[in-house]
UniProtKB/TrEMBL annotation:
Name this protein carries in UniProt: ornithine aminotransferase
Record's keyword annotation contains Nucleotide-binding: no
Primary gene name: rocD
Top-rank taxon: Bacteria
Single GO molecular function: identical protein binding
Sorted UniProt keywords: Aminotransferase, Pyridoxal phosphate, Transferase
Annotated family: Belongs to the class-III pyridoxal-phosphate-dependent aminotransferase family.
UniProt source species: SAR86 cluster bacterium
Matches recorded under NCBIfam families: Orn_aminotrans
Length: 427
């Protein structure tokens, strides 16, 4: 329950900041690993992880060490000069992902913008699309960020309403349906931009063959396949990248070998969130030399993009995925978590979707709203938030131990039981 201390912080936020978020009623003050404490030292387990940005857990000791070391040595220079951190980071991330080049940015939306710009340039200069005609195909229910261009192709009315005029050049087709995607392609199509699993859309997992079919269509039609793995990438789904779930003969269980054949490998990959190790905004666009060759001096950039602190943190963040076995833990704990949720057999739960430690629990709004359930979870020590009103997303740090997960599962179970107890008896 809120006391006066918490109320005063909440009041300040609402007096001095606009209402563009509706936070849950808790005021957080510190965190370590999967645990978070409010200003009164009440403890919660973080099943939200900053929308998947805190995959390494809060204040990961090694990242904290890098953060201290790098920020006391050199944190910001701009890209007007070379640094001793950017090259090694770019080398590490391209080798690890199997892409030729990486363009560093800060927020996820900026990396999506970068992908849009790079693929349009490629379309005009390599594919020879007529000036001003390039089109990008996206999917209904997408979430790619909040810039004026990106909201132009959102299907969520409130995110775009009265923010127009909107940017033209985008065509939205049904998610998960490669047929409608194929039908939307014409000679002006530069790229297809999709999420391998839609996160904000409610953890929507497409049909198994979808990405492979999209890959085939894009190859045949000379269209770039761009995947937004800002939320799904870097181990969240139990593989390095979510697209690797549909890479038929990839022999690596957790998808960590970039040189194996990968049937659904995109032409461009967008990363963010967990790339910053839970410390800072770090994003990037990865692609081939063929695409990146057109990003010449003056065409694109960012004051903070690729700064020494970001580069040092991002490099260690991706190295730790392997060193700390985070991808494997995501896979193993995720399967256990999913099974535990299904085994609860709660009539409030309509469906459990997702892969790895990225689960969407579809609740029956007849019994309780997503918002009220999130609040109830909060009161029971679980930080989580609904997306699309009826989906509760559980996405703990990938470092979570079996013991910590069991703690969460027990709490979640008692929340569902509490709701069921309050239900009017059905005949
Ligand atoms: C969070 C997210 C973004 C936007 O990232 P920001 O850092 O908030 O700009 C884009 N795409 C996907 C899939 C996301 O989950």
């Amino acid at each position: 329950m809120l006391d006066n201390i918490q109320k005063s912080y909440i009041k300040k936020e609402s007096i001095y900041g606009p209402d563009n978020y509706k936070p849950l009623p808790v005021v957080l003050s510190k965190a370590k690993g999967v645990w978070v404490w409010d200003v009164n030292d009440e403890k919660y387990i973080d099943m939200m992880s900053g929308y998947s940005a805190v995959s390494h857990g809060h204040a990961h000791p090694e990242l904290l060490r890098v953060f201290h070391e790098q920020s006391s040595r050199l944190s910001l220079t701009s890209r007007a000069f070379y640094t001793d951190t950017l090259g090694p980071y770019l080398e590490t991330i391209t080798k690890m992902t199997g892409f030729e080049m990486c363009l560093p940015m800060n927020s996820g939306a900026e990396a999506v913008e970068t992908a849009i710009k790079a693929s349009r340039r490629w379309a005009y200069r390599t594919k020879k699309v007529k000036p001003g005609k390039a089109e990008i195909i996206v999917a209904d229910g997408n979430f790619h960020g909040r810039t004026t261009t990106i909201i132009s192709f959102s299907s969520d009315e409130n995110s775009k309403d009265d923010f127009g005029p909107h940017t033209p050049g985008f065509i939205s087709v049904k998610y998960g349906c490669s047929k409608s995607l194929k039908a939307a392609i014409n000679e002006n199509t530069a790229a297809v931009l999709i999420e391998p699993i839609q996160g904000e859309g409610g953890i929507i997992v497409p049909p198994e063959n979808y990405l492979k079919e999209v890959r085939d269509i894009c190859t045949k039609k000379n269209v770039l396949m761009l995947l937004d793995e800002i939320q799904s990438g870097l181990g969240r789904t139990g593989k390095l990248f979510a697209y690797q779930h549909s890479c038929g003969n990839c022999s690596c269980d957790i998808g960590c070998k970039p040189n194996q054949p990968q049937e659904s490998k995109p032409d461009g990959l967008i990363l963010g969130k967990a790339l910053g190790g839970g410390f800072m905004p770090v994003s990037c666009f990865l692609s081939s030399k063929e695409v990146m060759q057109w990003m010449n001096p003056g065409s694109h950039g960012s004051t903070f993009g690729g700064n020494p602190l970001a580069a040092a943190i991002a490099k260690r963040s991706i190295e730790l995925l392997d060193e700390d076995k985070l991808i494997e833990n995501s896979k193993v704990m995720g399967e256990y978590f999913k099974k535990s949720l299904i085994d609860m057999n709660s009539k409030i739960i309509k469906e459990v979707r997702g892969k790895g430690l990225w689960l969407g629990v579809e609740i029956d709004p007849k019994y309780i709203s997503g918002k009220d359930l999130s609040k109830l979870c909060l009161e029971n020590g679980i930080l989580c938030k609904e997306t699309h009103e009826t989906t509760i997303r559980y996405a703990p740090p990938l470092t979570i131990s079996k013991k910590e997960l069991d703690w969460a599962i027990n709490k979640i179970k008692s929340v569902f039981e509490e709701v069921e107890k309050k239900l009017p008896k059905t005949k």
